[in-house]
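User: Hey, my collaborator sent me this sequence without any context and asked if I could get a structure. I don't really work with proteins. Can you help?
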Amino acid sequence: MINYPLRDVTRDPGQPASRWATSGVFFHSGSPKPSYRSFRFPFVTHRRAKSKVGVWGKAPQSGTLAIQKSSHGAWRTLRHVHVRRGRLFTPTIRVRGHAQLRGKIGGVTSLPWRQR
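Assistant: No problem. I've predicted the 3D structure and written it out in structure-token form, which is a compact way to encode the shape of the chain:
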């Protein structure tokens, strides 16, 4: 296991560049980096059959998760799943062909995932 800081450390000119950890999901100022969204709400899918897709994710909060598909510029909910904060969810949904999918719960939305 490798442990990196969640927040970037201050750059010290007296230290070698290898000590300037910029691998965090927050900048030194505390503002979130673009990677924070995927760290907070991981969401991926994988093809199980021609018309079935497995979903894997970790809930950022408890409640009803909407699994959505992008369709003609809008997001359409395919399925609702009850989830608990910090727990994994692994439902299967029906999706034929290519699709762009995401999870949404409360005001939190995952990054879109392109399923082929």
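In plain terms: The radius of gyration is 18 Å. You can pass these tokens on to your collaborator as they are.
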